[in-house]
Amino acid sequence: MSDVTARTARPAALTPDICVVGAGTRGIAIATAAAAFGVSVVLVERGETGGREGDLAIEALVQAGARAQDIREAGRLGMTAEAPVIHPARLHDHIQRALSVAAANHRAERLRALGITLVHGEARFVSRSTLSAGEQTIKARRFVLATGSRPQATVPGGLDPAGLLTEDDLASITRLPERLIVLGSDGRAIAIAQAFRRLGSSAVLLAHGGLLPGWDAEAVMILRRRLLRESIELEEDRELLRAEATRSGVRVVLAANEGQATLEGNRLLVTGSRAPDIDGLDLDLAGIRQDAAGIVVDAGLRTANRRVCAVGSCAGGAAAGSGEQAGDGHVGIVLRNALFRKSGSVRPSACPRVVWSSPPIASVGTLGTPDEDRPGTLRFLRWPFAEVPGALAAGDGEGFVKLAVDRGGRVRGATIVGRGAPELIAPWCAAVAAGLKVQDMAELPVPALSLSEGSRRAASAFYLPMTTNPAVRRLIGFLRRFG
User: CB under 8 Å to 171, separation ≥6 — which residues?
Assistant: First the structure.
C-alpha cells in the first residue's frame, strides 16, 4: 500500500466537545454526565471499560469475612451457631457477581447508546490540542485524563515480582492461601489481612512504621486491639530486608534486635505502592507537567495546558492525595468547568477517608491534635458508642465519635471508629465543606436508637462547659423568677 493510500485510509479526525481518556469509574461518570447534557463526547480506553476491579473485590471479601465473623460472635446476642464453612469457589462466584453487576453500567453497548463515541487504543498527545488513539485522531475542545494508577509490587530480595499478589489480583482469586503475608500500613492492607483471617487463612500484617500513620492514634489503638483479638500477627517495628521464593511459597526476612527474624507463608501480597498510569501519553507534547505524584494540576484540576484536566489517582499537584477517595468530587469540578465555565476547587481536607476494616474508621477534615504548635486553637469533643443505646442493642459498643472544633465552634474535622462509620461520616463531610458550626449539628434531629445518636451527642458535648459557668447559672436563676 502506498503512503498516499495509507493516509487516505485513516479515519477522519473526531472533533468532540470533550475527550475523556480512561474508561474507569470517574472517566465513565464524566462522559455519561456530559453526554446527558447533549455534549459530544469521545471516550478513549486501551483495555476493558470499567477500570479497576480491585476495590470492589476487596469490599466483597471484607463483607464475606464480616458475615463469617458475625456467625462466630453470635453468642453475644444469645445465639448458638455452627462455625462457618468457607467454600473458596463460592466465594469467588460472590466476587464475580458483584463485579458483573457493577460492570453492567460500564458496557460498551450502553455507553454507545448514551451517545458516547468509544475509541479503543493507546492514547498519546501529538500536540497541545490533538490526541491520537490507534489510527484515530481526536481534536477536542477539552480533554479529561482519568487514567488512574497501577500497582508497583516490588520487594527487596530474590522474589520475582510476578509471584507477588496485589489488590488488583483479588478479583480472580480462586483459592484461599493457608498463610498470607500482607505488606503495607494502609487501610487496604489492614482490610485484606483481616478479611482473609476471617475467611480461614492465617494472616500476617507487616506494617513497618506502624498502622495507619497520620490517623487518630486512639482510633488506631481500638483497631489494633481488634486485629490482635482475631489472631492476626502484627509486625509493626521490623523492616523487611528481603523476600525469597520457597518450595511452599515465600519466606520474608525481617530486621530484629538480635539480627534477623524469618517468617514463611504461601503468598505475599503488597499494597499501597501505586504509580499514576500516565506513561505513554507524551504529556510534554501537550505542554503538561508531571511529578512523582502524577499530572500536575491546580485546585481546579486544570493542567498547565488549559484545555486539559486530570482527575482521580493520576492527578498530582494540588490534587495529590485526594484522588483515591475523592468520590464524585473531581467529577463535579471538571463538569462545572467544562460545561458551565464555573470554577471549582478540590479540597483534600473535605474528602472523607475510610478504612474498610472491622471496626471501620472514617475521617474528614483536620487531623490536628491538642499538641499542635498553637495549643488551644482546636477543641475536641468525644462520645463513645458504649453510651449509645442503638449500638448496645446491636451488641457492639466499640468505638467513638470525635470532633475537632475551632474557637468559634466551627467544625474542622471528625473521626469515627465503630460500626457504620463510613455512613456516619457523611453529614460531617457536609459540615466541614459548608463550614457549619457544631451547634447546627447538635440541633440536627436523628432517628431514635440509631447510631447517629453518637454524632448528635458528641456535638452536644460542646455545651457541657456551660453547665458549670457561673454567669450562665445566674442567668437561669434570674429567668426562673419570671415563672
Answer: 53, 54, 56, 57, 95, 96, 99
